[in-house]
Amino acid sequence: MIKKGEHTIYNGKEYRFMESEREGFIELISNDKEDMNYGFVHYKDNIYTKVISLNEVEKLFLIHSFAKYKGELFGASNGENGKILLATSHLKLAEKYGFERTDKYLYSKNVNLDEVEIIEERKAFSID
After folding, report:
1. Could you give the C-alpha distances from 58 to 9, 63, 83, 97, in angstroms and in order?
2. How high is the pLDDT of residue 106?
3. Alpha-carbon span 78 to 54, nearest angstrom
4. pLDDT reported for residue 98
């Protein structure tokens, strides 16, 4: 699974998070029902949340994920049926690798996970 967005480490486990309405707090997001044993509450479907103080985590970070496909880097996200969705705005690359036009300046292609190398870029993040 490709990770994107705001993440943190809480009690040794990585979670997505969003800013809370309460200053100095964040809301952790989990898809693991077992986290209900640790104070998470069921939000809907398979989503569980927990509001915690920023003091309870060491750091916040932002993840951008890319995929290396046939030697080239592409934007990547979770595609359909367990595939990886590659995207580019570069017409020549799109033509070279058989991408389909999906928007005015965007070309996409679904590939199997074993065809790519996932690269995560993590940057420090702060809530100001």
Report:
1. 7, 16, 33, 42
2. 97
3. 29
4. 97
